[in-house]
Structures are given as C-alpha cells and as structure tokens.
Amino acid sequence: MATLVVLIVFILFLAAILTGGYNRRYLDLLQENWLWNWITTVDHKRIGILYLIAGGFFFLMGGLEALLIRIQLMFPNSKFIVGDVYNQLMTMHGTTMIFLVALPLLFGLMNFIVPLQIGARDVAFPFLNSLGFWLYFSGGLLLNLSWLFGGAPDSGWFNYPTLALNDFSPGPGVNYYVLGLQIAGIGTLISGINFLVTIINMRAPGMTYLRMPLFTWTTFVTSALILFAFPPLTAGLFMMMFDRLFETSFFVTAGGGNVVVWQHIFWIFGHPEVYILVLPAFGVFSDVISTFSRKRLFGYNSMVFAVVLIGFLGFMVWVHHMFTVGLGPIANSIFAVSTMAIAVPTGIKVFNWLFTMWGGRIRFTTAMLYAAGFIVNFVMGGVTGVMLAVVPADHQFHDTYFVVAHFHYVIIGGTIMGILAGVYYWWPKMFGIKLDERWGRWNFWLFYFGFHLTFFPQHFLGLWGMPRRVFTYEAGYNLELGNLLSSLGAILMTAGLLFLLYNVVQTFRHGEAAGPDPWDGRTLEWAISSPPPAYNFAQTPRVRGLDPWWLEKHEGDGKLKPAEPLGPIHMPSPSHLPFVMSLGFFISGFGFVFHSWQVGVLGLIVVVVTMYVRSFQEDPGYHIQPDELKGVEH
Amino acid sequence: MKRCLPASGAAMGILTAFSLLTGCGNHNMSALDPQGPVGKSELNLIYLSTGIMTFVVVVVTVIYIYVVWRYRERPGDEEKGIPEQVAGSKKLEVLWTVIPIMLLIVLAVPTIATTFSLKEKPDPADSLRINVTGYQYWWGFEYPEQKVTTANEVHIPTGKKVDLIMTAHDVIHAFWVPSLGGKQDLSPGKTDRLVLQADKPGIYEGKCAELCGASHSLMNFRVIAHEPKDFDQWISSQQNPKSRPTVGRAEEGRRWVEQNCIGCHAVRGAGYRVLGRTGPELTAFGERTRIAGVLDNNRDNLKAWLKNPQDIKPGNRMPAFDHLSEKDLDAIVNYLQELK
Ligand SMILES: [Cu+2]
Ligand SMILES: [Cu+2]
C-alpha cells in the first residue's frame, strides 16, 4: 500500500510539472534541457539515433551474457556458472539479442534512412514513431531489471510450457519475460505499421515501387511480416500471462491445456521473426554492394521478387522448429519441402550480389568488407538451414550445438554484420563524420575471424553429441577442443567490437567532416547535407529512375530536380506523451510482475489518461519558412 | 581424431568439414559414427545433404573468389571511367533458379521417403516395447511385457527393433542417443514413439536435449545393448532381483532404506510395503554403471550423492541425507551396492 501512495504522489507531481500547472518556470527549464529535447523528439532521424543507442546498450548486456556463457563452457566440468543461474544467462542472452538488439538496431537504421531514401520529410506518424521507441525501451528495461529484482527468466527464449509455468518456474522471472516482451512487442508492431504507411504514402513523386532502393524494399517487406507475425506472439504472451497470473489452463496439462499449442503459436511468430531480422540486412548489403562496386544492382526486379517471396514463404515453414515433437510424417514432410523451397529465392539473391560485383570496381571499405564477408557466412548459414530441413537429419541436429552454429551464422553473420555494415556506411550521413577506416579494418578482421572460430566448431560439437543450453559437458568425449576454440573465438569477437567502440569515441573527438556524398552514393540520402536538416529536403525531389542520385550525377546536372516550389515546410511538434504513456506501461508491467494489481491498474490508468489527452489535443505543428532553410538557393 | 578440428577451423570451408566428417567424436556419443540402422539412415541423409550443399558452396566460392580478386579496385583504375551499369540477365537468372530447384528435388525425395519409413510402427512380434517417462532430471524405463522397471540405464537386445513409447511426467524433455539415432520429444499429456536399434553390444550415451530446468545439462542416461541371450539373462535377473542382503551390515542398510527412501524409490523383492514412484527405481542398483547419470557408481560417490544431491545436480528433487550418521550412511551404501 505504501508503495502505491508513493507512486501516486510521484505521478501527480510529474503530471503537475508536465502540464505546467504547478509552476511554469520548471516547465520552461525542462523544455530547454537537451535531455528533454531527446525525450520529446518526433524527428525520425533522432529517433533512429535513440534506437541505435538503446540497442547498443542492450547489445553490451547481451554480449556480456554471451561472454560469461563461453567462459563457463571453455573447459569441461567447470563450476563457474551452473544450474539455474546459467539458464537465466542463456535465456536473457537469447531474448535480449533477438528482441532488444537485432531488431531495434535495424529500426535505428530504417528510421534514419528510409524516409531519406524515398524523399520524404518524416515518417507517416511521427508521434507513433516516438511511442514505438519508448515502448520498446521500457519493455526492454523491464526485462533487464529482472536481474536486480527477483531473478531473470530461465526457460529459454522460446519459453516452452510447462517449464515456463508457475509449477516449474515459480519466481517472477517468466513474468518479466511475458510482460517485458508484451510491452516491447506493442512498440515493434506500432513501428512496423508506421513504416508500412510511410513507404506506401510518403514516396516522392516518381519514386515508384520498382524504383525504391533495396533497403527500403526490405524494410517494407519486414514491416509487413511484423504486421502479421507479432499478433500471434501477443496472443501467446497473453495466454501465458493468464496462465501465470490468473490460474487459467491454456498450457497446463492437468487442466486440459496443451503444451504443443504454445510451440505452434511461438514459431508462427518465431520463424517469420528470423526473416524480419535478416531481410533488412539483405537490404543494407544490396545498397552497400552496389555502391562500392559502382554498379547498379544486378537483377533488381528479381531481387525484389525474391524478398517478397521469402517474406511470403516465411509464414509456411514454422514446423521445422518442431520436427521432433511428433506431429507425424505428413506434417513433417510438407514443412520440410516448404523450408527447402525458401532456399531458392535466397540463392537468387546470393548470385545477384555476386554478379553485381562482377565487372564492377570494388572498393573494400569497412562497410564493403562486412558485405563481402557476409556472403560467405550467409552461404554457410543457408546451406546448414537446408540441411536442417531434412527431417531425419534434423532428428540428429535438433536442439544441439549444430543448430546454435546455424542460427548464429545467419543472425550474427547476416543481421549483425548487416547492421555493422550499415553503421559504417551511413555513419557519415548520420553524424557528418566518417568512422575511421583503419580501426574499421581492425574491427572487421578480429570480429570476422573470431566469429568463425566461435561458431564453426559448434557444428561438430552438435554432431558429436553436445545438446544446446547445457552448462557443462563431461571430459573424455572429444568435446574439449571445440569448446575451447569456441570460447577463444568469443574473446576475439569481443576484442573486435571494442575496436568499434574505440572507433566511435575517436571519431566523435576528432573525425574529419564527411561531406554530403562521401561514397559516391546512388540513392537519395546522399543528395542532401550530412547530417541532414530537420526537414530533410528543402524541396521534395522528383525521381526519374532507379538509383536517382547516381542518375542525376551521371545523366543530369548533378542536382536533384524539385517536385514543388520552395515554400513553408510543415513540421510536427515534439511531444512528451509517448514517454509518459510508456512510463505508464512500464509501471503497470512492474506491478503485474509482482502480482500487485493496484500498481498494475495504476499504470494502466496513466496509459488511458495519456491516450485521452492525446486524443483531444490539438497539434497544429509548426512551419519552417523558406528564408530559414539553410544552404538553399532562392 | 584430435587433428580434425584445428585444420577445419582454419580452413573454414564446408569442403574440408565434409572430408573430415567421419571418424570424429566419441564413438559412443557421436551422430557421425552410428551403431544402428536408424542412425545410419539419418547419417546417409546428412551426407547427401552435405554433398549437394558442398556443390553449391563450391560454385559460389569459385565465382566469389574470382569476382573479389578480379574486380577489386586497383591504383590507376580511376582513369578507366565508371563500370558498365548492367541491369541483369534473364538467362543467368533462370539458370540459378532452375538448378537449385532440381538439386532440392534430389534432396526432397529421399527426405520424405525416410521420414515416413522411420515412423513406421514396428511389428510387436519382433520388436521390444519399452515405455519411457521423463522426469526432472531422470529417466524411468518400463518393460510392460516383462514386468520390469528400471531407471537411467536402459538395456536392449542387439539386432532387434526397440519400440520406445514416451511421455513426460512434468516438463518437456527429449530423448537423444546420438550414436543410435535422432531424438524424440517427451511432452506431458502426450505419447510419442521412437524406434531405435543397436547392431553391436555396447554402452551408448543418451542425453536430454530439451531444456527442462536447472539440471537439464545433467539429465543423462545410458543405453546398454547386449547380445540377445545376455539380454534375456538380464531380464530374468531383473525379474528375480537379489534384494535381500546376505551380509549383516547390509541388512541394517535395508532397514534404513525402508525408513528413509521407499516413499520415493522402489526396490522390488526387498519385502517393502510400498514401491515409491517419484524417484528412480533402485532395484539391482549395484549393477548400474552410474549414479543419477553423472557419477561413476562407487561407494564414495554414492555417499557423496546421499549427503548432498543438490551439489551434484542442482534443483533435483531428492532431499539431502546429511543428518544421518556416517555409520548409517555406510550401511545404506553397503545395501545399495549389494543390490544385484
Ligand atoms: Cu525457422
Ligand atoms: Cu530433461
């Protein structure tokens, strides 16, 4: 009860400040603060940077967890981290990396770049964009606070019942998982819808669908996947939440529930999720490869078709995660074939990348190194994927280190390297300065070598009898060397990433100005100054073909053609409501984790009140007048 | 055997990996060294898929190395102007769509055939049925026709199909014996079948492969395959276990076990009123090779287990018996080791 009173007072206090009802002076002070400006921003570029910062922070957490795991597994029978604590570590590592690192970092790039690539001034719903970020952040924070209050979830990132139910996971850990992911998931869904609408509605004149850069295309398809894949997760998490908090029996066998239902629901979300993660990386690599080969993308149309096809097929393969459940040979065969089918469009992409480079003039910048390295990883991760689709073979692979190797090859080798390539490639656009190429090469080679050293031996560990998610293995079964190499590799990867950190710090201290178009780019974002002004384009450009900026440089006069006369630009006004609403969700989530209905409901009240305020708020935005535009010829 | 990893780790190619696949790992625990027909047919598919995939990898690698080397930017390239902007090539694109489809068909046909054949129900007349139940963190085995139960070590005859009918008592587990064949999940509220067969006598290591709690990593078991006649002997010794000790001290242990353990454990033929079912069967425990799947079965280890099972298997459901005196513990250990 006492906590409740304190919370109410605190919230009233905040509300008083925020509405200016208490004393305008505080409000003014607050509004001039830089932190406040970031919290209330609705600028897609700033929100993109917020995603990168938050994702980077969780990356440190997840990376540290991975390192601890590899230290425990470095030698047989070691007792450093065992039992339940190990399960917490490995669960949080997976959950963090999938939900709080990979996708948000991609969202960071998408947010910053996609509106620029389609010649838009912002996303379709700037307010929702900010809300999506803050929901993600509060969900992620809630999940990670489990380390401090009550213990982290420990049932693996796919959280199978009955292990995840109260009987076998009695602490608050799994509640954190359910509620944290629910809140972060709403944010993801909102962002996905926002990107969809942005790409459908906000393209500059002449930017037809088949002129969109591949990164925009993959963002588009990924957003569609989010739209269809996240609702099943939401539903599943609700059922799990009800089983845990309100004693329902969706998954409790004694109460007539069924444990296999959760597996279906989870993987109907979970398989598309891996394409949600990897498609945007394909997009980054397509842009990077064509830019640094100085050639247009080979087979653009079939690349687009392949992305759409992969997205579509991605919904028809989820049972390949369940081949050992015992669903029968008919189901297993159908899903084996559909899984193999997905390899075809994926193969098309690989060859198209190779032939984009063919005949080009390849500059091996750090971004391009990541792209070139990715092709190798992805071919390896892809072929092991096809091998996993072979049902009888999968009976041996399933739930072993072979699978661990496979999905790290695609998620690190694909998604994370895509993000790193994107960071090196777009850093000058985002901050106006280039990351240092020399440190970049250190970063790449250490990370790359460490990556293979970590994960290549794991294929064998799996085949030699090492299940995944084990905290130890016995000596004398030939598992020692592989594990040792794998742990050494993890240390190398860490070292590689430290070079990236160092590079970032050094660049901010004395990086050289990059100019608007440091790489001889092809797409619209390179036509405007770095970093771009708040309104992006002083005049909305008219797009005349694929790779519009390259076109203007080589077949035009090197300037974008405007599609509208110079005029006042309408901008959305900043808002603190997304932050407050997310705070409400956070408080509510925290309350429910500990079965405190009062706090839970209180948080929801905050949410509803902010929704109410938002609904009746008039937000006319503001205008930037033509004479305020910098660097524009009048 | 030790050589295979660094070489392939450095070469980092599926090709080397493939050539090194055979002969690696421990032969009692490796999917690459199968000891029965199921494991062999699975390995054949692993080989087939690796072979086809190696072909793909080789093609890609050759093009890749050529492209990256031939078209890298060299000093002086600037003067040559920009490369030709090629839009694509219908012919090539059709080629690399059609060839993979054909390769996948080659892979899909045997995949489906084997998927169905492995799930065939064996003829009860020439197979042995065993019921398997997964518990946190141990395995119960029941031979319904022979009326024998045992735990953590399952004995089977060679050359005969074993029809394993599985379910779980609490959470999901997965039954995996890498050298005999792939795994099957054990789900609460559901029964499933896995058919395995061993060709040669031997001890094959088994693991739980589905995360099932704190001691998931330690939920091991063993499959012990005998020649058929040795197996029959084993069955009959299980049906008439020596559970009445001949030595005096052990008789004392029998009583201690009666007082402390039989609520959870069963010892058939010892004259106990109840046969506990919430812990592993202890009949003929002296014959087991291991304790709880993780320790070698000897007196010291057994005593350590009784004193503090949590230290050995965190989170397991056996209470500690550190309140018993050394003498009483010795008596229990004596008795358990006498069980044959
Ligand atoms: Cu999948
Ligand atoms: Cu288990």
Automatic annotation (TrEMBL), chain A:
Subcellular location: Cell membrane
Gene Ontology molecular function, alphabetical: cytochrome-c oxidase activity; heme binding; metal ion binding
EC number, UniProt record: 7.1.1.9
A cellular component annotation (GO) from this entry: plasma membrane
Transmembrane segments: 47-69, 90-113, 133-153, 174-202, 214-238, 304-323, 335-355, 367-391, 403-427, 439-461, 481-502, 579-612
Primary site of residence: membrane
Alphabetized NCBIfam families for the sequence: CtaD_CoxA (TIGR02891)
Free-text function comment from the UniProt entry: Cytochrome c oxidase is the component of the respiratory chain that catalyzes the reduction of oxygen to water. Subunits 1-3 form the functional core of the enzyme complex. CO I is the catalytic subunit of the enzyme. Electrons originating in cytochrome c are transferred via the copper A center of subunit 2 and heme A of subunit 1 to the bimetallic center formed by heme A3 and copper B.
Protein name: Cytochrome c oxidase subunit 1
TrEMBL record, chain B:
UniProt EC number: 7.1.1.9
Family annotation (SUPFAM superfamilies): Cupredoxins, Cytochrome c, Cytochrome c oxidase subunit II-like, transmembrane region
Chemical reaction(s) catalysed: 4 Fe(II)-[cytochrome c] + O2 + 8 H(+)(in) = 4 Fe(III)-[cytochrome c] + 2 H2O + 4 H(+)(out)
GO biological-process terms attached to the record: ATP synthesis coupled electron transport
Entry cofactors: Cu cation
Domain (Cytochrome c) ranges: 248-340
Stored InterPro entries: CcO_II, CcO_II-like_C, Copper_CuA, Cupredoxin, CuRO_CcO_Caa3_II, Cyt_c-like_dom, Cyt_c-like_dom_sf, Cyt_c_oxidase_su2
Compartment list: Cell membrane; Membrane
Domain Cytochrome oxidase subunit II transmembrane region profile per the UniProt entry, residue ranges: 23-122
Recorded GO CC terms: plasma membrane
GO molecular function ontology, one term from the record: oxidoreductase activity
Transmembrane segments: 45-71, 92-113
Pfam families: COX2 (PF00116), COX2_TM (PF02790), Cytochrom_C (PF00034)
Domain Cytochrome oxidase subunit II copper A binding: 125-237
Membrane-topology descriptor: Multi-pass membrane protein
Annotated CDD domains: CuRO_CcO_Caa3_II
Keywords: Copper, Electron transport, Heme, Iron, Membrane, Metal-binding, Respiratory chain, Translocase, Transmembrane, Transmembrane helix, Transport
Physiological role: Subunits I and II form the functional core of the enzyme complex. Electrons originating in cytochrome c are transferred via heme a and Cu(A) to the binuclear center formed by heme a3 and Cu(B).
Family affiliation: Belongs to the cytochrome c oxidase subunit 2 family.
Record protein name field: Cytochrome c oxidase subunit 2
Organism listed in the record: Melghirimyces profundicolus
Lineage: Bacteria, Bacillati, Bacillota, Bacilli, Bacillales
